[in-house]
Here is the input.
Amino acid sequence: MHTMPNSIQSSESNPDIILDVRKLRTSFRIAGEWHAAVRDISFTLRRNETLALVGESGCGKSVTALSVLDLVPSQNGRIEAEQIQFNGRNLLGLSEDEMREIRGNRISMIFQEPMTALNPVLSVGHQVAEALLYHRDMNKEEANRAALELLDQVKIPSASSRFKEYPHQFSGGMRQRVMIAMALACRPDIILADEPTTALDVTIQSQILALLGELKRDTGMSLIFITHNLGVVASIADRVAVMYAGNIVEIADVDSLFAHPTHPYTEALMRSIPRSDRDTETLHSIPGQVPPISRMPDGCRFAARCDLARPICRKLDPALQQINAGSTHEVACWVRGDHDLTAIEDRANG
Here is the structure.
């Protein structure tokens, strides 16, 4: 990870904020050129808070989480930021050994596909105990005992008899519970959950969400929950950051976002949610698709798919602004933000 030139480090620390990310830009090299997948995004995470990162596939949600943990492959990826401050400590510039002390210990991650994230030739008990052996001063017997308690905690049926079984012997929902147990092993301050319910049926999905909520209450951890499903967001999040094409286009507390979705992309996502009180013929889709990082248009990245787009939208990229003075609800939109559009368009054309 690299600190951007002329970075401004915070001189004051808010004890309620456990993670403070500023001007994060993650780029990948494609055909010899660097292209940003995450573009100068900033956000904070409070203690015992759930922040949801929402958006279509390819919008930069998972890359954001991987960047926080410096897990972007250095061969063809690079991470730059003003700061990624965790619990008062800037993670930028830490050595690989120092980051290993953070990963899985202070900040854990639940990956999307448990079948590919779990090692198929190691028992699930061994894989849960592994983090405890590495990060805690435990012998094998102590680590196995603690791992069994974790499997019980995430409600694996007959955990003691299944401790030595392998991932292929577990259902998708049970494998996801194993992943959660692994993430919880060292009682981290933050868990990054990357679409942990995507591959599960609705009933199991509901159980996993309830389990995460219960564990969050019991442990006081903070959670960044990555998803494309706004229905899931409504049941688990405290705040929501809507991402599109590598940018945060809207951020607000969950009640404000659902009551007053402001960015046209957020509105379009809301309209596309299937609802039992609407006829299926009225289900909306968003035309077009997220542009590839190698062909990002100028201006607002959503302009080509937006019915409200004006000429300024295709020229200049809007920054996040409060929708009202003193509001914590922010939107990056020329049409919906608090802008003097006439003056801005005159300057752009002049």
